[in-house]
Amino acid sequence: MELNRQTAHELLDLLKNKKTTPEAILDSVHKQIQKSDKDVKAYVRLNQNKVDPKTANSRSVPIPIGIKDNMCILDEETTCSSRILKGFKAPYDATVIEKLKKSGAILIGNTNMDEFAMGSSTENSCYGATHNPWKLDCVPGGSSGGSAAAVAASEAIWAIGSDTGGSIRQPASFCGVVGLKPTYGRVSRYGLIAFASSLDQIGPITKDVTDSALLLNVIAGYDERDSTSVNAPVPDYRQALKNNVKGLKIGIPKEYFVQGLHPEVKNAVMAAIEALKNKGATFKKVSLPHTEYGIATYYITATSEASSNLARYDGVQYGIRELPKKTRKSPLLDMYDETRHVGFGAEVKRRIMLGTYSLSSGYYDAYYLKGLKVRTLIKNDFDKLFSEFDALIGPTSPTTAFKIGDKVNDPLSMYLSDIYTVSANLSGIPAISVPCGFSKERLPIGLQIMAKPFAEEMLFRIAYTYEQNTDWHKQSVNL
Ligand code: GLN
């Protein structure tokens, strides 16, 4: 048995019955990384970790995990796959990292991402692109493409990602794994390097739904160091893993099945709906009328917040510092300019400019403020439906993974791959992507389920029932 191909819950059972050891699990993951990461390029950095045999038995979850390169790990380099943060070592652990360390997790390394989590393909990285394990000339999705690819290639048992507009769910869908964006405020963002603070949320990327629940158990909870984390009790999410959807009412938003949706994706999602219908859930076509404004609203909100959040990278406190050859304005201003010129990639610069524009006086009302108002309308659409429905269901992404290089020069078409995912961030609701089939080219397809705030248990229940009655999650890549 190849340990690295097992799920975390299977490994925890083996550990409990003394059929394996944390060292053996770690070893199998390292062997896989050596074998396939030269092709997949999921990791940007590996940690030198060993399992301490004295503490191994007292650890509750000694499972190797990949961490997206935007979460602070004490004394380790964290760069958001950006040149500007090269050499930055975090002076503290993010809350999620602290919780993982306490649980005994073995942090194997940092996974690749789009620079500052801006992108949908993991091509916007200063380390180069990550490749989709199912088809190496395709993207793994983004921005948590490294985490999703690592899990799909069995180079990690599970991983952590962050989702601002779809960055956990879309790569999970492209790589055939499970990705959960929890409710805004369910998981602390303390120590997550900010992209768009009102949208960012950390979540698990796993091989199956049970692992997603287990990992959320480890990372969820109130944190006084994050003023937007919510002080509400955290249930034991394993209790939500019930193979039963009888009587649940699920809405199918008609706006998620329009032009642009690839027929193979549509067919797979419709088949998934049929499977859940056979298990006793009832379905009804519904409408989220403001969906068409989602992308515009998201890109105004996200770029505005990013332009503010990224103002701190000026060569003074973090990462690199560059000086131009010739003095232009003043030594200090020149240093700011040159550091940002050299340090940021093209997409990050584009977003800083867009966001600065939306926030500037004269345009603020027309763009940013208008965006906030439309955001409320989008949220109201969901509130209305959730008073009647237990969940909503549809595709995670309109297509399967595209070829590396296909969209890099067309930012608008890249932005459209988030069309079904951004609304959950704008509304703060939880959403999960689970594998629901393959295209003719054998590229994975993802099914998205959304529920009202703090109803992660509902997502797990539906996703688990679907998983128990299908076997997409059992198909894996053999690299
Ligand atoms: N792809 C989206 C973007 O480029 C979402 C990114 C994310 O969720 N971090 O902004």
Written description of the protein model:
This protein is of the alpha/beta class. It folds into two domains: 331 residues, Alpha-Beta Complex (Amidase signature (AS) enzymes), CATH 3.90.1300.10; 82 residues, no CATH class. The protein contains 15 helices and eleven strands. An eleven-stranded mixed sheet has the order 1-3-2-4-6-5-10-11-9-7-8, sandwiched between helices. The protein starts with 7 loop residues before the first helix and ends in an 11-residue tail after the last helix. The mean pLDDT is 96. Bound molecules: glutamine.
Key descriptive features of the protein:
binds glutamine; 15 helices; 479 residues; alpha/beta; 2 domains; Amidase signature (AS) enzymes
List the helices and strands and how they pair.
Elements: H1 8-16, H2 22-40, E1 43-46, H3 53-56, E2 64-68, H4 95-102, E3 106-111, H5 145-152, E4 158-162, H6 169-175, E5 178-181, E6 202-206, H7 209-219, E7 249-253, H8 263-278, E8 282-286, H9 294-309, H10 331-343, H11 346-359, H12 365-386, E9 391-395, H13 411-415, H14 422-427, E10 431-438, E11 444-450, H15 456-468
Parallel strand pairs: 2-3, 2-4, 7-8, 7-9
Antiparallel strand pairs: 1-3, 4-6, 5-6, 5-10, 9-11, 10-11
Helix pairs in contact: 5-6, 7-15, 9-11, 9-12
Glutamine (GLN) binds at residues 117-120, 143, 163-167, 195, 302, 418.
